[in-house]
Amino acid sequence: MYGGGYIHDDQKKKTDITAEDPALLAEFEARIARGEKIEPRDWMPAEYRRQLIRMIEQHAHSEIIGALPEGTWITRAPGFRRKLALMAKVQDEVGHAQLLYSAAETLGKSREDMINDLINGKSKYSNVFNYPSKTWADVAVIGFLIDAAAIVNQVANSKGSYGPYCRALERICYEESFHLKQGHSIFVYLATGTPTQRAMVQDALNRWWQPIMHFFGPSDKMSQHTETLMRWKVKMASNDDMRQQFLNMYVPKIREVGIVIPDPNLRKNPETNMWEFTEPDWNEFYEVIKGNGPCNAERLAVRRAAEDNGAWVRAALRKADQHYVTPLA
Amino acid sequence: MKIKSLDPRVSRLELDAVDKQPDAVLKPEEHWETYQVFHQRKRGEKHSSVGIVHAPSAEMALVFAKEQYGRRGETVNMWIVNTRDVLAMDYDDYDVFATTPDKMYRDPAGYKVNDKIAEFKKSNLHV
User: Fold this and answer.
1) Model ipTM?
2) Which of the residues in chain A have pLDDT under 50?
């Protein structure tokens, strides 16, 4: 799951591209234009490094925090097969965080610094995980639709320019396809089940629709210029394009089982061939980013408790002559 | 104020909300060293580099590698190597190989004699 289209960026930390060596910069950009990958110890502009660390790190945090709203349902999964599948999925998400932290580490930020920045709120994660998962049907909606949205984004990013991130995403996308299938399976079983089950999945979609529409971030018209990031193949598709692609693929799959999308204005305009929808509440989106969503405090507190409770294990296993080396790839 | 969760197990932990600027939870190198993982899918195939794990020892690295890189599909064997022990070339030095593809004298395609043979067969030297 989980890397959203929207990546929080503190504009104050932006570095000046014009300060880079023009010859090196030209060579770097030519390499990307030829479709070659950038590898960890290549020369790269400071802004490229900063943007990639920010993006991969937030993606990693999203995987690890995303495991929480789903993990909470493992003990209450209806039946052994669903429980096994959900355990496997949640384990995958945590494994994805490991792959992504490693990819970000190759750019020079240590794993300890990334986790500290997550816990102290300096570094963000996908907004959707600051909403509660109230019923089993939430597991269906997250596994089916949030994972589907993440796949749209991740498949695009896996064609990007940074080698280690692309390689991690290829492995991740392969595993995500199982997540999507298991989410869709739960969704279909509930939607074609008893009236109570149908009502439960409808209620879950009603609550999750807005966070799903938030997932890809604000419209390109509203967001900061992304031209350089596109040229550097850090950002591979615009927020609007990804949202349109997601709606194209998944609105029919929701409607075919008789579940109603809670937006009366959602329709595909036959002339423009584009989806039209009610603009989601972007103020809420920014409030949740700032930390004021329904579950922000709980997510970080649980994450911190996990690190605190594991401290004695890490300390016991630590060796005096241990010496960290940045991983190769 | 203690965290109230929909999940009673979280509520029972009586967690405090994290301060806005807490002390660093993790100290440098608390997540140990890095190991490069090599994975063999089937007998007879080669081991391929698949990624890394963090671990406090080679034995633990192998345990984590099995979990991280072997939980799906086929696996018959894995190696792990401490990243410290890998000596890698710089990408900048690739130019020492720049002319290698042109070294046709190392390539079977660099040896073409059929024209010579055909010419010889047509000539009066051929009996």
Assistant:
1) 0.87
2) none
